[in-house]
Amino acid sequence: MPVTRAAYACDPAQSRGRRVFEAPAPTRSEFQRDRDRIIHSTAFRRLVYKTQVFLNHEGDLFRTRLTHSLEVAQLGRSIGRSLRLDEDLIEAIALAHDLGHTPFGHAGQDVLDDCMQGHGGFEHNLQSLRVVDKLEQRYPAFDGLNLCFETREGILKHCARRNALLLEAAEPGGVGERFLLGHQPSLEAQLCNLADEVAYNSHDIDDGVRSGLLDLEQLETVPLVQTYLREALAAYPSLNGKRLLAETIRRMLSAQVYDIIDATGAALEAAQAADVQAVRLAGPLLRFSPAMRAASTELKRFLFAQLYRHSQVQATRARAEQVLRDLFRIYASDPQQMPAEYLQEIDPSDLPRACADYIAGMTDRFAIREHQRLTGLSLF
């Protein structure tokens, strides 16, 4: 049964438009078109071989950026339907939010940011916007995917002030303006940001146990996990192993989804946001309840200490960092090592940015192969 879009939701018929005008599609809304363009992009396909915590060669069943993006889209659409938001816009933002991520997860982001000091730095959110605005080359009339303002706004979750000023200078009143004014993005964008957190907390638990770096005994010390682990055992006393883990995570996910729906519904009622502009001028409205926010933060602290800083993860991270540092150094000193077709498209006056773009677009396994080709070293 169709869901009536709320007044505070984004309406594709009232979109602030695309940077290059295009006539409307006969059978799809503007946000549907954005979603479809993202799915068919080269950068989206590459996400299948870009990893979250565990590298691609460490196992076939660990999450990748692609599976993570699909999980964010699923959670976002489920919540968005209950809140009467635009599901196509939510899906478009969710599927595109990690397009600018480097190979090797956050290790790659940190390395490229360090390499790019003095050249504007590197932010993966800004890189995702750069991918859809410039780096994708599929259309004869423009660079990028020419997405709607609302989709681009949602992709740019965070932005340093210096970069917001540059965006505003290039596109007055565009996606950089809200960071300068302290305004909020649409509810659809706010939802994708929170769904991202819910998804990675949950799947990092799953991957952490699957890898052997975490176990249920450790997880039972985390209040949010403990609650639903005990609830699962109360319902199924003989449950154990992967089924117990899956049931615990399922219950935890459901509780977080319902909490967001209830807490956001109350915030919307209190704010009396009559339209999208009222949402932008209000404080953050898409939220957890205070109790669930505290529980989620505690889980993040646990994962940071016990998984992301685990000695095995750190050892892999060190090798990944060397791969990307070496690649940046080699390309910056000898650009001819990058493909001739790519060199024809770059701005020769900004070689460091071209090197960062090329490396950021790599999959984990391509970066490893390219490093071995150029250095003779086999680090993985």
From TrEMBL:
Keywords: Hydrolase. PROSITE patterns: HD. Coiled coil: none annotated. It comes from the Bacteria. It holds the Pfam family HD. Residues 65-201 form the HD domain. HAMAP family: dGTPase_type2 (MF_01212). Belongs to the dGTPase family. Type 2 subfamily. This is Deoxyguanosinetriphosphate triphosphohydrolase-like protein.
